[in-house]
Amino acid sequence: MKHPFSLSVVAVLAALSGAAKAQSGERVITSESPARTVAQTGAATDAPGARLRVVLLLPLDNALLKRAAVTVRDGANVVFATRKNEVIVSECAYGGAGAESVVAAYERCVDARTDWVIGPLGRADVTALALAKLAVARPTLMLSSLGTVPPNTMAVLAPDLESEGEAIAQQAMTDACRAPMLVEGSGSLSGRVAVAVASYWRDQNAIKLRQASLGDRGSWRKATEGWRRDNVDCVIFAGAGAVLSELRPYLRGMSVYMTSASYEVAPDRTTDWTGLRIADAPWLVDSEREDFVPYAPAEKLSPTLGRLYALGVDAARLVSAAARDSLPRAFDGAIGQLTLKDGQYRRQPMVGEFRDRAPVKLGQ
To answer: What angle do CA 79, 80, 83 make, to 5 degrees?
Structure first.
């Protein structure tokens, strides 16, 4: 059954993920991370044994973003629950009708005793906070792409489709696709995946990558028959999962590659997906990994909500690892292998293969 908030969450993911790569800037983070830069000002409590103070700055009062915000919060809280004697967590909600802005909420909830802020969520709010002249600026891990290098007191941990497009293109190359076809559906998410795949392929491979826009369903048989005559052996699909489920019968004999943008459907829509390869968060691809087990959600989540939950898990684990020192420069996260550069975590997703309606790690 479709979750009542599923359409809102899918819509908001486009705003949350943003562009993956920051624009160039003069500021370069060396061994001094945003956490260390602020910690050196000596504002927070550094007494031995003092508990870490964390503020969750999330749009819990925003009708569109509430389900996403609650899921991120739950992911963070399940981590902090294992560290009750080490962390004090408080929520700072914003985003209701006529409510204060994210900047006003930050200044209401954050003071010199705060060690870390996790949030905000949503590109518009991340941008507003990054541009604000804050009276008290504490180390802040923002959860949506900023599109440029963040201020010294801030860092970015954000989901993105571009890294998945590159990873699945690389997998198709590794699998020796000789005549690949990039198939683009409708919508902005599909366009972003297609651009990422095409750009990476052009830079890394001499084999031509042909591209096709998927028309109405009545044209699929003719189109795919043409692909067969042209000996297309691989399809990199950049559309929605519901469309892929209907297109799948026309792709017999072709290897199919996809990203998380195509995996938001219910399990009963993936019955014919065995063998399809996907670049996605390790949380979904390698869900039984030992270090994930303590943070399992109380209820089964859709793939879309599962990625948001994993984002909360990673945010909490990162600030817990940093404590009052630097953020980890490399981290094996639930949303991917993370590397901190220019104040932003770059993400390497995991490639898996569908078996029994769900993705599993390659080689398992």
So the answer is: 105
The first and second tokens of residue 142, run together, are 């923002």
Contact (CB, 8 A) for 151 and 139 = no
Q: Give kind and range of the element (H or E) at residue 183.
A: strand 180-184
Give, rounded to a whole angstrom, the gap between the first and last alpha carbons of the chain.
Answer: 29
User: How many helices and strands, by DSSP H and E, does the chain display?
Assistant: 11, 15
- 168-212 pLDDT, tens digit per residue, is 999 999 999 999 999 998 888 999 999 999 999 999 988 899 999
pLDDT in tens, 25-34: 333 323 333 3
The pairing of strands 210-213 and 234-237 is unpaired
* Residues in CB range of 129: below 8 A, 6 or more apart: 102, 103, 106, 120, 140, 142, 154
Provide the CB-side half-sphere exposure for 317 (13 A, CA).
Answer: 20
Angle CA(42)–CA(48)–CA(51) in degrees, nearest 5? 85
- pLDDT per residue over 59-81, tens digit each? 999 999 999 999 999 999 999 99
Q: Is beta strand 180-184 parallel, antiparallel or unpaired with respect to 140-142?
A: unpaired
